[in-house]
C-alpha cells in the first residue's frame, strides 16, 4: 500500500528527473558545454569547455532545493572570477539578471548567488532556483531552469579564466624570440 508521503516523494523524484533530462537535452543541442554527465541521481554536470582549469556547471538538488552552480577544484580559477568582479565593481547577481533578460527569461529576477567552498572542496558559485519557478505547470519549470543555466554560462564565460580559449592565451615568449631571430 502506498502512503501519501511515498506517493509525493515518487512524484517529486519524477519531476526532478524530468527537469534534469530536459536541461541535459537542451544543453546537448546548444553545444555550449563540454562533457555532460549525470553524476548522481540528482545532479547534472556540464563541463566548461575552455576554462583554464577544470570547471563544471551543475544543476542539482540539495536538501530539497534545486540549484544552478559553477564549481571548480582550482582556487586560482575561482579567484580569477572574483578579481574580475572586484576590478569592474559589478555584482554577480546584477550580471546574472542582465543575462536572464538576454536569454529571454519570461520573468527575469535578480538571483541570489552564494560563493563558498563545499564539502568536496570545490569552489562554488551557486544560485537557488526560486520555488515559484518550480511550481509552474507542465514543462515551464524545466524551461526556466534551462534559461538560468544559459544565463550562468553566458555570465561566467566572460569572467576570470572561465574562457581561456587560444585567442586569450598569451603568446609563448620562446616562439616570439625565435620569430625575431629569423627576421
Describe the structure.
The structure is a single chain. By secondary structure, the chain is of the alpha+beta class. The protein has a single domain (4-182), classed as 2-Layer Sandwich (Yope Regulator, Chain: A), CATH 3.30.1460. The chain contains six helices and six strands. It has helices spanning 4-30, 75-88, 92-102, 131-134, 140-156, 173-182; strands at 36-40, 43-47, 56-62, 65-72, 114-117, 123-128. α1 packs across α5 (140-156) and α3 crosses α5 (140-156). Mean pLDDT is 85; it is low at 5-9 and 166-183.
Give descriptors for this structure.
183 residues; alpha+beta; Yope Regulator, Chain: A; six-stranded antiparallel beta sheet; 6 helices
CATH architecture call: 2-Layer Sandwich
* Structural Rg: 19 Å
Q: Whole-number average pLDDT? A: 85
* Major sheet attributes: 6 strands, antiparallel
Helix segment tally: 6
Q: Percentage of helical residues?
A: 40-55%
β-sheet strand percentage: 15-25%
* Protein structure class: alpha+beta
User: How many strand units?
Assistant: 6
Domains, number: 1
Biggest sheet, strands in spatial order?
1-2-3-4-6-5
Instruction: Summarize the helix and strand pattern as letters.
Output: HEEEEHHEEHHH
Roughly how many Å apart are the termini?
A: 84 Å
In the CATH hierarchy, the third-tier topology is known as: Yope Regulator, Chain: A
CATH class, named Alpha Beta
Can you summarize this structure?
This protein has 183 residues and is of the alpha+beta class. It has helices at 4-30, 75-88, 92-102, 131-134, 140-156, 173-182; strands at residues 36-40, 43-47, 56-62, 65-72, 114-117, 123-128. Strand 5 and strand 6 (123-128) form a beta hairpin.
